[in-house]
Every structure is written in structure tokens, then in C-alpha cells.
Design a protein that fits this description.
The structure is a homodimer of 339-residue chains.
Chain A: E1 4-9, H1 13-24, E2 28-34, H2 45-48, H3 63-70, E3 74-77, H4 83-95, E4 99-102, H5 115-128, E5 131-134, H6 145-151, E6 156-167, H7 173-178, H8 185-193, H9 202-213, E7 219-228, E8 233-234, E9 239-240, E10 245-256, E11 259-269, E12 276-284, E13 287-291, H10 298-308, H11 310-313, E14 319-320
Parallel strand pairs in A: 1-2, 1-3, 3-4, 4-5, 5-14, 6-11
Antiparallel strand pairs in A: 6-12, 7-10, 8-9, 10-11, 12-13
Helix pairs in contact in A: 1-10, 4-5
């Protein structure tokens, strides 16, 4: 079988990491890279990604023409979070006849908050015979697919409580900044008041879980609070003083039938205590799942979620798809990996 | 939408529990029950299942004629573990034009150990436009689908270690007996020597995981050891004296590429210490998942796995299917459940 032809669209930190994983997999062939940054255009993808070798493929900024030249089967799309900002990019990729796997958090489950967008992308994808999906670790796994998977052995489910605590200290600067690390409490409140702050995708996870379980949503209550630093902490990028903000705790509570049925609690902070992933299922049977000692490392897991979806998406029906429709996730091509 | 017409084939403890769950779900309609036991034929299913009401449906032993009368869309099949023993039953159901979801452990992944059977069932199912699948909690979830799902966020997987420890004390007598509870060490060894002892399905779980991850199997090493009782323990059904067998520990180690890549450790014993489900993934990222405080309660989870598969299987392509091909598992119809 010929390897699957892949183009990486977006060569920021996540896109660069995707390139490295694609290069590891014999079943995948990296055929191009697209980025709108004029500083990147023309440079070799290997150089952009910090590889010790040239890949012989120059980054291009002229997306449509580049896609026509490269004819990828799949585009890994890692640019922006909001579907409003990526519709033109997705349209271009679909019109080039390629399947799209995107890290856009809103694309994981866009149907309720962006019905017009969802309809347009679904229709266009069907016209061009390609499938489009949004995935990642969160949304895409830790707070939606994994809890759903656990309910697969329940005859009834009364309530689900999902907790994810992420220590942003070892992670990238953008994650630290967008969760408020190093801000004063006043600056944090000011950011919060803009309405444009906090983790994107928690609501998408909640809507996906509720809809998939057939639970009508009465009401969603969301809160975002600062997590304060008690001691001085230094990351590779910044220092957080005691009394400054270390990160945030974002909680989403969803009612259905007059009862609280789903709680998603997410903390992302520098030096977070007891980083972990937990899922508590109240039902028959009731049980709790814990991934402790750091939880699922999000930096790598997002890349994995994107790449592992490739073989599944290309055999899915055309249209705007969700992770709930694809086969159960699993790693793609680890046979050659040595202990 | 009309409810899905379901027949329960096999009215032992698992079949009876399935009936109760089917009756809870508005999207399912129980239209019949089949059992070969002449003691059951002619009696009302409600009575057989210990319900406080008659269902107005008499159990029948004449499978083919009963299926022709009831015209189910799906048959829940809970009779025997080995595919050799159920091929005639499956053939009858398929020829009646019904999808089949079976608790047969071997049917979860029969391709390698029973290729002739698998080919015949797959061909027949395709001829009749129906899908056939084997599932349950183990095999079907705890030691295969759940570990696979966790690898979905790994860019590489080096090794997987799955541990399931089940306290058989609160479970059914057949589980206690088939794991040796109450035997002397000598009797245990004697049973073991028959080659027909131990949990069925561990090898199917292993083969499913290896094949799905694309790991060629060099060698499978299997061991079964008794777990000895240290104190006197009494279940609803039997008493285990100190020095008698409380259950068994079954371990399967699989090598690929000269390295041990998969270890499945299963203990089922009366009074098992620290009953739990654990999955350790060595890879990128590495992480461990734990379901402690009893693990996933198998009695209910098997029923759930069977019933929750109904809506997914009826839209799957015809043929002999696996849980790795279906969408990620999740609970079916829990909207009406109250806290």
C-alpha cells in the first residue's frame, strides 16, 4: 500500500510536532507544509521544525496553489481555535479534495454554537467526497471521548464528573499565558471581563457528551477562577511570584431534566498540585477512573490524537464528522518502536 | 422512530439480566425469548426473569420457528463461550435476518483461532445483510477496548500492561466454580491438566490488541496459577477454607519483534485483595490508568456492553464485526435515569 500523502497546515509548535510524528510513520508521507507567516515561506520544513536534516520541501504560503501541486489525501490543520477564523482555510483544503484533521477546539463539536458554519462545511465536504474532523486531547479525548468510552459498560448513567488538572509549568508559553500565569489578581479579573479568556473547548466537550448520551441540556453554568501562587515558581518562560496568578480553574456544570448530570472541572496552572485526569461515573455500575502522576501529558497527546485519526478519517463517510462516530481511538503504527 | 425489536436467546443469569435492561430502554422492545431448556419453554419471560409481572411472552425452544414469528432486528445471544458450540445457533439467527450480539468470549475475536468458522459466519451474515459481534466486559472492554482507547493519545507505544483483579465473592456461582474456588491444590492442578480450565477470552483480548496495533505476534506465553485462601471465606454459594483454592491468576505475555509488548494479568478469586482494573502504557506519553475500589463490576458491565452495542451494530456494515470497528462505546438511553 502506498503511504498516505499528508500536508501540514500551520507550522507553529503543534504543527512542527505533528511533522516529526508523521515522519516516524512508514504509512504516512509528508508531502508539504503551509504557513501564512512570510518568515517561514520558502524555508525547508526540516529547518523550521528544528530537524538536523533538510526534507527537500519548502514551506509555502500560497495554500490553494500549494495543495494543487502536492495533492495530499489528508491535511493536518493546526492554526486557530475558533471556527469563524478557519472557515476560509477549511474551505480551501476541502476544495483541494483533501480530508482535514484539525486541532481547532471549536471544530470538535461545532453544531450547536455554529450551526451555519457546520452546515456549510458538511455540505462542501460531501460535495468533494472528503471528511473533516476536529480532535486533540482536550477537547477530543480526556474530557469527552474517554468518559463516554467508560459509560460503555454501564446499564445506566446518572451523573459524570470529569476532572483534569494540568501543570502548565513544563508546557509551552502560550498555554501559560492564556491561562493567566504571572498576572496580578486584578489583571486576571480584567482579562476575564473581556469574555475572551479561559480554555476553549470545555463547552464543546460538554455538548458532545450530553448529545451523545441523549441528555437534553437545560442549562450550562460556567465559572472561571484564578489559581493563586503560594510560592515563587519559575518556568522556562516566566516567573510567578507568590500572590500572582498561577493559572485558572474552569468549571462547567450541566443540568438535564432539572438535575446536574455533567460536571467538567479543568485546572491549568503552573505548579498545579496533583496533576491528573479523573472520571467519576455515578450509575450502574458506579466507578472512578484515575490517571495520576501528571495525568495525560497534553503536549504529546494532542499531536497523537491528530495523527492517530488519519487512518480512521480517510475511510469515514464524507462530511463533517465527530470522534463519537469514528471507531474507538488507538495508536497508529507503533510496531517499529523499541522498548 | 419505532423501538428496535429484540429477542433474548439464552435465559440463564446473563440473559435474564439482559431482559431487565432491555425492558428499561424505551428505544428497545423485547419481542421474545429462546432457551433450549425444556423446563423454561412455555413459561412467561417475566416469571423466568423473576419480575413481578408477566410480559405476555412465552419462552420458546423452537428457535427458527420462534424467530420467524417474532421477526427481531437484533438477537442478544448469551449461551456458550466457544464458537464451535454456537455456530448452529448463530447460523439460525442470521438466516432469520437478525443482527447478533453475543457474549461468547471466543466470538470477540475468532479470526485467528477459528478462521473457518469466522469465514463462514462472515459470508452468511453478508448474504443476509446482518452484522454479528461478540462483546462483554472481558473480553470486550476492560482488557482490550479500554487499553486500546488509551493508546489513542500516544504518538508511540512500547508496551502495555493490563491488570484486572476481580473479587468473585459477590459474583455468580459459575464464576466461582470455573475459577476453582473451594478446590484443593491437587484438584486445581488436575483441572488445569485437562487444558479446559481458566478464563476464556484472555487470548482473544491479546490477539485483538496486537492485531489492532499492527504488532505481529512472535510468541504467547500463558500461565495459570491458583490463588490460595489464607482465611476462611464464605460466599452466598460456597465456603473456602484456608489452604484451599480461592481462585486463579492467569497471565498472558506476548512478544513481538523479540520484545515483550503486551502483558495481560487477570486474577479472579474469592476475597481478592485490591480488586481493580489498571492499564499501564509505556510510550510517548507514558501513563497509568486505575479503576480502583473494586474495578469495573463485571456482572453488570457485561450486560451493559451487550445492550449498549445494539444501536451501533444495526448501522454497521453486514458481516462478522469487531468492537475495534464500531464507534467508541457509550451508554445507550440513560436520559430518563434519575439521580
Amino acid at each position: 500500500m502506498n503511504p498516505i500523502r499528508v500536508v501540514q497546515f500551520g507550522l507553529g509548535p503543534i504543527g512542527q510536532a505533528c511533522v516529526k510524528v508523521v515522519l516516524q510513520k512508514p504509512g504516512l508521507e509528508l508531502v508539504g507544509g503551509i504557513d501564512i507567516d512570510p518568515q517561514k515561506a520558502g524555508r525547508d520544513i526540516g529547518e523550521i521544525c528544528g530537524l538536523d536534516r533538510s526534507l527537500g520541501i519548502a514551506v509555502r504560503g500560497d495554500g490553494a496553489a500549494a495543495l494543487a501541486d502536492w495533492r495530499p489525501q489528508v491535511v493536518l490543520h493546526t492554526t486557530l481555535s475558533f471556527v469563524d477564523h478557519i472557515e476560509d482555510q477549511l474551505t480551501m483544503i476541502i476544495q483541494a479534495g483533501a480530508h482535514v484533521i484539525s486541532s481547532s477546539e471549536e471544530l470538535f463539536y461545532p453544531f450547536q454554537r455554529n450551526p451555519g458554519f457546520s452546515q456549510r462545511i458538511d455540505t462542501l465536504a460531501k460535495q468533494h467526497g472528503v471528511a473533516v474532523i476536529g480532535t486533540g486531547v482536550n477537547p477530543g479525548f480526556a474530557m469527552d471521548i474517554l468518559p463516554l468510552c467508560l459509560t460503555g459498560v454501564c446499564t445506566e448513567v446518572k451523573k459524570i464528573i470529569v476532572t483534569r488538572v494540568v501543570d502548565s509549568g513544563p508546557r509551552r508559553l502560550p498555554l501559560q499565558k492564556k491561562t493567566g500565569a504571572g498576572l496580578s489578581p486584578q489583571e486576571f479579573e480584567h482579562r476575564l471581563a473581556t469574555g475572551n479568556f479561559g480554555h476553549i473547548g470545555l463547552r464543546e466537550s460538554a455538548l458532545a457528551v450530553m448529545d451523545t448520551l441523549g441528555w437534553p441540556v437545560d442549562e450550562i453554568e460556567e465559572s472561571i477562577r484564578p489559581v493563586m501562587a503560594e510560592t515563587k515558581m519559575t518556568t522556562n518562560f516566566l516567573t510567578v511570584e507568590p500572590g500572582q496568578v498561577a493559572g485558572l480553574r474552569q468549571v462547567l456544570r450541566v443540568k438535564s431534566g432539572g438535575q446536574e448530570r455533567l460536571v467538567l472541572e479543568l485546572e491549568i496552572s503552573v505548579g498545579a498540585k496533583d496533576p491528573r485526569d479523573s472520571v467519576e461515573i455515578l450509575g450502574n455500575p458506579s466507578f472512578s477512573m484515575h490517571i495520576i502522576e501528571g495525568g495525560i501529558f497534553g503536549g504529546t497527546a494532542t499531536i497523537a490524537a491528530l495523527v492517530n485519526t488519519i487512518p480512521k478519517l480517510i475511510t469515514a463517510p464524507p462530511g463533517l464528522r465527530t470522534m463519537m462516530e469514528l471507531p474507538v481511538p488507538y495508536a497508529f503504527e507503533s510496531a517499529g518502536v523499541k522498548l
